[in-house]
């Protein structure tokens, strides 16, 4: 061991990290049904950890602290479940009524595409839009999204159970670290844990507020335009806003498509589309960066890759969790000298040691 140079040791650690990532990926895929509720519980516990710490500092027994958190979570989950269940039923009952209009719209688009292609000397007759885009496929996609939310809600008992255990022992973690490691090592580990908690909490709270405001605005605008199921579309915009880039697109396409089928007016639909796009840009590109006092600074390519990776592992819930999970990995890498180069590669903007863009 003494004959191993520092460079060789760094290479060994780097190779070990690659193997560890591969093993972790296989484990996450195999145990997704258990690990997904646990990860959700960890992220929720990060949000509520300051509240529990504050109540404990006021000499409130841990049992009552957990009871307060449980009461808050139960109310939120009940309201979300009520919205999803009632709205999903209404949408599923109304969707068949729009099938004839949808098929007629696709045939019109196909006819226009054929006439335009003929003027350019291109034959598109063999390409049938009805084969590529069918009402059953759109309904299937919508059903997949709704089922994903229902599956998350169905696992709430497991999520709450995990969260209660995590919050119950959160206050003792720092003391255990200081007792189990040397003073210098414990300070470093505690600093890493606090940094991860702080930045992930900041992201989750900010993103939740932005998504909530976006969902409310979506619902109000769709209600003013007279689009059916504004509460459902607003809730969908709130949830999908957690998915970078793709989420906002999906949250906009479905209500706009419904508006086109409902009103048979291209002008009204275009105006609605413009308004929704403006809202997304104001909240996503203007308000959110200002509310984030410390950016996660993740590469756009990395966000896309993480979106695909976590979506492949855990479906839509994994896509929603992709950014906070990837940011957590980056923060861990930043605090391990041998893995710090990987953290630099994960950055969107090159920063100096003071975390200021160069």
Q: What gyration radius follows from the Cα positions, in whole Å?
A: 24 Å
**Which outline best applies?**
globular
Number of strands: 0
As a percent range, the share of helical residues equals over 70%
Question: Helix count?
Answer: 13
- Given as residue ranges, the uncertain stretches (5+ residues, pLDDT < 50) are none
SSE run:
HHHHHHHHHHHHH
Give the integer mean of the pLDDT values.
76
Distance between the termini: 40 Å
Q: Structural class from helices and strands?
A: mainly alpha
Strand fraction equals: under 5%
Largest beta-sheet characterization: none
Tell me what the structure shows:
This protein is mostly helical. It has a domain at about 35-120 and about 135-170. The chain is built from 13 helices and no strands. It has helices spanning about 5-30, 30-55, 60-95, 100-120, 130, 135-155, 155-180, 185-225, 230-240, 245-265, 265-290, 300-335, 340-345. It starts with 5 loop residues before the first helix and ends in a 13-residue tail after the last helix. The mean pLDDT is about 75.
């Amino acid at each position: 061991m003494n004959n191993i140079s520092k460079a060789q040791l760094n290479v060994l650690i780097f190779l070990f990290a690659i193997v560890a990532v591969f093993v972790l990926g296989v484990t996450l895929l195999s145990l997704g049904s258990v690990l997904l509720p646990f990860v959700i519980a960890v992220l929720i516990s990060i949000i509520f950890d300051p509240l529990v710490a504050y109540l404990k500092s006021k000499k409130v027994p841990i049992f009552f602290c957990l009871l307060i958190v449980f009461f808050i979570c139960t109310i939120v989950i009940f309201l979300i479940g009520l919205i999803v269940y009632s709205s999903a039923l209404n949408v599923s009952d109304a969707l068949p009524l729009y099938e004839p209009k949808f098929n007629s719209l696709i045939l019109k688009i196909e006819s226009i595409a054929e006439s335009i292609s003929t003027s350019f000397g291109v034959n598109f007759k063999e390409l049938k839009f009805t084969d590529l885009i069918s009402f059953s496929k759109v309904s299937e996609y919508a059903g997949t999204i709704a089922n994903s939310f229902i599956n998350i809600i169905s696992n709430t008992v497991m999520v709450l159970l995990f969260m209660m255990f995590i919050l119950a022992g959160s206050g003792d973690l720092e003391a255990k670290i200081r007792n189990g490691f040397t003073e210098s090592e414990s300070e470093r580990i505690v600093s890493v844990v606090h940094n991860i908690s702080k930045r992930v909490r900041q992201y989750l709270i900010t993103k939740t507020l932005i998504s909530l405001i976006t969902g409310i605005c979506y619902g109000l605008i769709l209600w003013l335009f007279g689009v059916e199921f504004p509460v459902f579309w607003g809730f969908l915009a709130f949830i999908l806003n957690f998915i970078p880039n793709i989420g906002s697109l999906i949250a906009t396409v479905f209500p706009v498509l419904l508006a086109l089928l409902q009103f048979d007016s291209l002008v009204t639909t275009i105006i609605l589309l413009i308004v929704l796009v403006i809202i997304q840009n104001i909240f996503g590109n203007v308000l959110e960066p200002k509310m984030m006092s410390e950016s996660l600074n993740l590469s756009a390519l990395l966000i896309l890759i993480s979106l695909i990776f976590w979506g492949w592992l855990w479906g839509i819930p994994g896509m929603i969790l992709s950014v906070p999970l990837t940011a957590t990995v980056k923060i861990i890498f930043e605090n391990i000298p041998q893995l710090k180069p990987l953290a630099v590669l994960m950055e969107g903007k090159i920063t100096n040691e003071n975390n200021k863009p160069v």
